[in-house]
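**User:**
Everyone, produce one record:

**Assistant:**
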Amino acid sequence: MEALIAFSWHRCDTKPNLEIANHAVTAAKASGVERYIASAGDHHSSYVHLREAYWLFNTLPSGDLELQRWPMRN
């Protein structure tokens, strides 16, 4: 469980993945161990922001390639 939570946090910092974040939260809750739930639960707020960003990215106009460049650079 600790490895899954650590991997989920690592991916959030390096290459966010909604499935991994959701799986970590679900597994932590299923374990019933409060320490795991707290560790993965903090991650849930990141998951919400990541999901919103993913939705916003997918609703960008398809013709504007500059807006869809990843990562955005100034």
